[in-house]
Each structure stands twice: as structure tokens, then as C-alpha cells.
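hey can u check if this looks right to u? its 267 residues, i copy pasted from the old doc so theres a chance i mangled smth
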Amino acid sequence: MAMGDDGYLLDNRVAAAGARLDALAAIFDPTTFRHIEALGIEAGWRCWEGGAGGPSVPRWLARRVGREGRVLATDIDVSWTNPAADSGVEVRRHDVARDDPPGEAFDLVHARLVLVHITDRDAALRAMVRCLAPGGWLLVEDADSALQPLSCLDPRSSEEELANKIRTGFRALMTERGVDLAYGRKLPGLLREVGLLDVAADAYFPVALPACAVLEATTIAVIRDQLVDHGVATSEEIEAHLSAVAGGRLDLAQPPMISAWGRVPGG
């Protein structure tokens, strides 16, 4: 998701956004695919990938459901999602927070790192549930930055302390824009509240993966001006931080991503 005119902090319209989405895919796609496999995806399923961002998840879904199935991938900015169309995915511009949901029945609706950014996330969640066919599954995956707020878990140097300072400022900017930093942990209860059955959840906590460094560098590239303008860090501090990231001197972590799933009755 983005934040320029649409209200999101991480603007997907900038050049660094593509590399950032690739890093997110490298970190989180295996976990997402594992969960969807466990839900029993098969040929012929109809799937909606909400807030798709990059093309990796829609493409994977298209391979799994085959020609008998259908994959709809939506986002408020489909610039990075469009390449999935070469796999038979229908790509559609759509704001899950404001637009009416697709008037179709899906066997799977999936949203990753989407609802946490939306102010009216309860309405968006209920809209996704309404799109499910009888027996269909909803899989929502969102971060819980409040569970683990640090960039470097065991800071022992000034570079690591700087990394944590920048992460703290980044989290403050997110909060100002309506992000719920503790949203991930709420997902199981929220899925039960909207009437889903067989609700369960788990968490994935990436620590010191190579893609975490790429994600850090590209995220800083996207929000650099805002970090400086809001006094989170000086330009010199940001350059020093990026040098430490590029030099491999930091063991960078990301917040846990909590995956929660449940199905509607019937089917």
C-alpha cells in the first residue's frame, strides 16, 4: 500500500517501490504460499488478492487454480501488479477501503499487509467476508510492530542504536497516519466476530534475512524526505544508516507477520 495523495506513508508510485515489493515477496511469499496450500487450494478455485502490490502472489495463485479457476488482483495503484496479467490474472484498480467489493463469490480472499494501513479496516474486513462463497476461506496477514518494535534486536553499537532510532521514528509516522501497530494480534478475534469458522493463526518473525536489508534500504529510499522533514533523522544520519545496511553490519529484523484464517459457513 502507498501514502501520498491516498493517505498511505509508503508511496508505491516512487521508483524504489518496485524493489521494496520484491523484498517483501522474498521475505513473506513462502509463508503466504504455505498457508494457502494448507487451506486446500486446487484447480478451479476463484481467488481475490486484495491490495496485491507486486505480481508474485497473483501469479502463484493463477498457476495453482489453472485455466478452470480465476484470479482477481486489485490495488489502488496497479502499476506493480499489472505484470501478473501475463499469467491470466485479471488486474483491476480498486480501493478496498472505499470502493464496493467485487460482486462475485470467491473460494479464497487474501490480503497481506493491507488492512493494517486502513483507517476503516473493520468495514474492509467485512466487505471481504461478503465476497466469499459458501465454505470459502479468508486469509489475512498483517504485521504487529508493537510485538517487536526494534530494527536490531541486540543493539551493541552506535550503528545499531541509530537503526533502532530510525525504526522508532518510522513507527511514529505510521501511527500518525492511522496505522494500528498492534493489529496483527487482533486478527483471530476479529475473524470470529465476523462469523468465520475454524479460525486459527500463527506468526512469522523474519530476523537477519538478506532480503531484510534490501527491504530496509528501499523503505528508507521511499520515506527519506519524510524522515528528515519530521526530525526523525538528519540526512547525514540516514546516509550513515544506509552505509551500515549496505555494508552488512546490521542484523536487521522485521515485525512479526501474523497470519489468520477462517471460513464462512456452508459449502
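The first helix runs from residue 16 to 38.
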